[in-house]
Design goal:
By secondary structure, the chain is α+β, with helices and mostly antiparallel strands. The chain is built from 14 helices and eleven strands. It has helices at about 45-55, 75, 85-95, 100-125, 130-145, 150-155, 160-165, 170-190, 200-210, 215-245, 250-255, 260-270, 305-310, 345-360, and strands spanning about 5, 30-35, 40-45, 60, 130, 280-285, 290, 295, 300-305, 365, 390. The strands form three sheets. A six-stranded mixed sheet has the order 1-2-3-9-6-4. A three-stranded antiparallel sheet has the order 5-11-10. A two-stranded antiparallel sheet has the order 7-8. Strand 7 (about 290) and strand 8 (about 295) form a beta hairpin. Helix 8 (about 170-190) crosses helix 10 (about 215-245). The longest helix has about 30 residues, at about 215-245. It is globular and about 60 Å long. The termini are far apart.
Length: about 400
């Protein structure tokens, strides 16, 4: 095997995956890496292999104890860190709020919010920061509505989210303090009173009282959903807008054919790189063959969607953005039991936001050259700090 290389790869600027991903095909299906924690792992980057790791029970989510974390740490209690039956038990308590039917029901309300935000931008005049003036208030408003929290209350939590989503941008004490403060806030929210007993907080409180989840599990589940729904969607929207600003021809085509937008959003999800850390490590539970290699129990593997989404065996011309791909089984939302709970909501928000931008700001253009944009560094989620635009 090749010598282990450090992972995550060096941070880079741009919507595409790090250039290092292009070298993986020549290094075999399983590439030895050393994670930031010092753990040795095998990088899994082919679509079929990544899909296998995400669905085969022979692979388990990497135990937090192997990272020196306790079973009650925020990382251990996160929904994406546990396997069935704990994962199934927790997920079903909140799944009702994030179904495709629920996303469709919210579409008119999200459309009105997006139109109001853009109307405000137009009234104030450009240039504007598309993140601060549109993407952030849109996603904050949507998840705040689902949770029954006022926009100002959610906005007040964003400095904590910034620290909690840090890999190296903030020190461990700051990150730990942010987790404790967020826990306290959501413990208060969970305590009630709840205007909607069948809302997210109402159901979680009832499940806690009935012994279906512990108090710690309920609190971490709730704030994990809020963070994911805002942080990932807002930054993904920024990446999608960057794609359109780069390609006015594509923007014009979608403006004239809004029916193509759902497929175009799927392709932009495949094409762009949102996850700065690659994915969630898994550990082999029993002897298994993967990528032509036999792996023993205890082997750590890291499935990376940035590699899978550029697999030429699945996506012809993988480095070309093709909004009319006839099939697009991208793994940006994950796969199998851990497929992103909020995928229908995120897809809908991206479609609505981009559709409104194309319709209401047909002259949208960058206010500064792309090379002058400041990218987020030391964070789990990639994106730009500000996205100045004019029209």
């Amino acid at each position: 095997m090749n010598p282990a290389r450090p992972f995550p790869f060096p941070e880079h600027h741009g919507v595409e995956p790090a250039p290092d991903f292009r070298t993986l095909a020549g290094l075999g299906r399983l590439v030895p890496v050393t994670l930031r924690s010092g753990v040795s792992a095998l990088l899994v980057h082919r679509h079929a292999d990544v899909s296998r790791v995400l669905t085969d029970p022979a692979f388990a989510r990497f135990p937090a104890a192997r990272f020196g974390l306790s079973a009650r740490s925020p990382e251990s209690l996160a929904l994406n860190s546990v396997d069935p039956p704990d994962h199934t038990r927790r997920r079903r308590l909140v799944a009702h709020a994030f179904t495709g039917r629920q996303a469709a029901r919210l579409r008119p309300e999200v459309t009105r919010l997006a139109e109001d935000l853009l109307a405000g931008m137009i009234e104030r005049g450009g240039p504007a920061d598309l993140l601060a003036d549109f993407a952030v208030p849109l996603t904050v408003g949507v998840i705040g509505g689902i949770f029954g929290l006022a926009e100002a209350r959610v906005r007040g939590l964003l400095p904590l989210v910034e620290r909690m989503m840090s890999t190296t941008a903030f020190d461990r004490d700051e990150v730990a303090a942010a987790h404790r403060a967020m826990f306290d806030e959501f413990e208060t929210f969970l305590a009630g009173p709840h205007a909607d007993p069948d809302g997210v907080f109402g159901r979680l409180a009832r499940a806690r009282d009935d012994g279906e989840v512990t108090s710690d599990e309920a609190v971490h589940l709730a704030y994990g959903l809020l963070i994911a729904a805002h942080e990932t969607t807002a930054n993904q929207l920024g990446l999608c807008v960057l794609v359109l600003l780069r390609d006015p021809t594509l923007a014009g085509r979608l403006r004239g054919r809004p029916d193509l937008l759902p497929a175009a959003v799927q392709e932009m999800l495949r094409f762009t790189s949102l996850n700065a850390t690659g994915g969630v490590p898994h550990v082999v539970r029993r002897p298994v063959r993967l990528g032509g290699c036999r792996l023993g129990p205890g082997t750590v593997v890291l499935p990376v969607t940035d590699g899978a989404n550029r697999d030429p065996e699945v996506f012809p011309e993988p480095d070309t953005l093709r909004p009319d791909r006839p099939a697009n089984p991208h793994l940006s939302f994950g796969h199998g039991r851990h497929r992103c709970l909020g995928a229908p909501l995120a897809q809908m928000e991206l479609e609505v936001a981009l559709g409104c931008l194309l319709r209401l700001l047909p002259g949208l253009k960058p206010a500064v050259p792309e090379k002058e944009l400041q990218w987020r560094t030391g964070m789990y989620v990639r994106g730009v700090r500000r996205l100045p635009v004019s029209w």
